[in-house]
Amino acid sequence: MKKIFAEFREFAMRGNVLDLAVGVVLGGAFSAIITSLVDDIIMPLLSIILGRINIADLKVTIPGFSGSSAIVLTYGSFLQAVINFIAIAFALFIFIRFINNARERLHPKDEKAEEEMEEPTKSEVLLTEIRDLIKERSKC
User: Fold this and answer.
1) Cβ contact 49:42 at 8 Å
2) Residue 52: its pLDDT value, please?
3) Degrees, nearest 5: CA angle 14-30-106
4) pLDDT tens digit string along 52-70?
5) 54: closest CA among 38, 65, 68, 34?
6) Quick one: 80 exposed, middle or buried, by C-beta within 10 A (0-12, 13-18, 19+)?
């Protein structure tokens, strides 16, 4: 039993798992910010354009068949979810773009190092030749 707990502790303390946990927590907080942006700023502005107070209240009522209750399609909630998704996706795009630009400024690429990395080593060349010879023999 101690071995299982030790393995679990080792697993949980790996960098990737901790990074994922931090990402999930920050993602929840970021989602709350974007939801507030959409609900409190974008939707009221959009409702001014559409002449409605709350887009989430938009709905269509279809009368029921043979005495059954009416069917209500609340497409306003769907529109609000789509707008939330677009806002979150755009905000993440801008954030990731900002991070990538900052990374490039802090760590400029060394073109010479990239050229050196592209040249295969002697053993890689030899292994490639062996692979090609094996392919030729297997075709025959």
Assistant:
1) no
2) 65
3) 65
4) 667 777 889 888 787 788 8
5) 38
6) buried
3-class secondary-structure state, position 95: helix
Which residues in the chain come in under a pLDDT of 70?
A: 12, 15, 52-53, 110-117, 140
C-alpha 56, offset from chain centre? 25
Within 8 A by CB and 6+ apart from 70, the residues are: 61, 62, 63, 64
Cα dihedral angle (96, 98, 100, 102), rounded to 10 degrees?
-150
- Backbone phi and psi for residue 71, each to the nearest 5 degrees, phi listed first: -100, 130
pLDDT of residue 27: 83
104 φ/ψ angles, rounded to the nearest 5 degrees: -65, -35
Which pTM was predicted?
0.50
